[in-house]
Design brief:
Largest sheet: 5 strands, mixed
Oligomer: single chain
Order of helices and strands: HEHEEEE
CATH class: Alpha Beta
Shape: globular
Radius of gyration: 19 Å
Structural class: alpha+beta
Strand content: 15-25%
Number of strands: 5
Length: 119
């Protein structure tokens, strides 16, 4: 029996390495729409939230946010004036307990892009 010896190709190894996500842009809390500011206030107060799905675990399947253990991120709906459903705007916060998040992000395009909220 002979062993097969492969040739190391650094380009292929580089392609398989975990990719770091680009830095997330920031946005001042005061620059967000008033509906997002109200949602942020509700998060810090622990609710009550207007939507039944507010506070559910956000899975980060899009991998737009820094990698963390499942359960770290929770999502909250930002009311979209004129929308018949929850709309596309959300705030996603990370940390435990949710009322004292380590970090919060705003998305207005249903998780396609995020901005880190700064005070």
């Amino acid at each position: 029996m002979t062993a097969t010896v492969g040739i190391f190709n650094p380009a292929m190894a580089r392609d398989r390495a975990p990719q770091e996500s680009p830095p997330t842009p920031t946005v001042a809390l005061s620059a967000l729409p008033s509906e997002a500011q109200k949602t942020h206030q509700l998060i810090l107060a622990g609710g009550p939230f207007p939507y039944s799905k507010d506070g559910v675990v956000f899975g980060n399947r899009e991998r737009q946010l820094p990698k963390n253990a499942r359960g770290y991120y929770h999502e909250y709906t930002v009311k979209t004036p004129g929308a018949r459903n929850r709309g596309a705007k959300r705030i996603v916060c990370g940390g435990n307990p949710p009322q004292n998040p380590d970090v919060c992000y705003y998305t207005e395009d249903h998780y396609t892009s995020f901005q880190r909220i700064v005070k």
